[in-house]
User: What shape does this take?
Amino acid sequence: MSQKIPFVTKEKLEEIVAKYPTPFHLYDETGIRRTARLLYKAFAWNKGFKEYFAVKATPNPYLLQILREEGCGADCSSYTELLMSDAVGFKESEIMFSSNATPAEDFQLARKLNVTINLDDITHIDFLEKVADIPDTVSCRYNPGGHFAIANNIMDNPGDAKYGMTHEQIIEAYKRLLAKGVKHFGMHAFLASNTVTNDYYPELARILFKVAVELKEKTGAHIEFINLSGGIGVAYRPEQQDNDLLAIGEGVRRVYEEILVPAGMGDVKIFTELGRFMLAPNGALVTKAIHQKHTYKEYIGCDACAANLMRPAIYGAYHHITVMGKENAPCDHKYDVTGGLCENSDKFAIDRMLPEIEIGDLLFIHDAGAHGFAMGYNYNGKLRSAEILLQEDGSAKMIRRAETPADYFATFDFSSEYGAKLAEEAAVKMPASK
Ligand SMILES: *Cc1c(COP(=O)(O)O)cnc(C)c1O
Assistant: This one.
């Protein structure tokens, strides 16, 4: 069993907490850069390899900028993600637009910014042409249907997923796009989420590469890139074995040599759209124990709640917790670690064996750097937390302030009945932050 070690010391964290009150999400610049470099190393064999970070996992421009400096692009799926990526400075083909059920305005913005569009459905060809126009380069999202299995283990159920085109449709889509003047093509598929096996990408690559060869033979299309999308997971549990990215890159290389090279497609670029793998372990939710409750169970009440990190509440997801400063103390207390929502599912951990927790202890909730803050919400009038970046030089920088009541009330600003009154309430009654 491996140990999960926080990327920050207790002393450093106390220094940060003195300046920025809990709860907050903390990100590790060193870890983010290390992960990006490892990914580029794993795919160094492929000329033109590019990671398009899935913005939805951690939509913060400061973090996007770090990834940009490491050579990554941005994978967007909405209007606002496009705006953010554009503001950070990603240009044209540095942005992949992998959306579904796409509104007209989103396609229009994608065309205005001239980003690479990845079409989710065959009917989107006509839709895109109607609301904007068809660019020179188009990618199509593929869904093989059925079950996706690795060595008889069913990983996921693409036949049930709303994404992508069927086999027949993607061939037809390429033909139609060729007729409309498209010159360069891409292919994309996302078949399983949060995989912790080195076989996912190679297996996915095998499926996509075979279809790519078929597409080239049947339509004559020039396939410029194949996008393996997201899905490489992280070991949320200490007893799980982490993915070995170098083994994954090597696995994809072998399939590439086996299928694409003999078909005369040795120039195809490999793209990825990883979110979780890039950021999850490089971010944590930091919260303070503010209550102890002894009823039928032992509870620790925190100043963060599911509104800051939703995965445990909605998926029953495991997130490891380190009680700062008690890393070596025996885990001889069984706790439910809860937030303050009026929802019994608002628990970061259930029946978790931890060291004895005292009020004021700082809890470091691991692997919250992707799909963490991003999935936050305002239920119960809870406010979103700040995001803090632990920079390479050891200093902490606020990269998003915490919401205030004024933010929560801001969408009433149209209303003369309540807008002004709520703004005044928020301004007057707001407790001074320490
Ligand atoms: C969510 C998503 C990703 C990222 O998935 P991870 O599991 O975070 O790696 C990539 N591409 C698309 C189209 C997605 O929807």
Q: What stands out?
A: The mean pLDDT is 96.
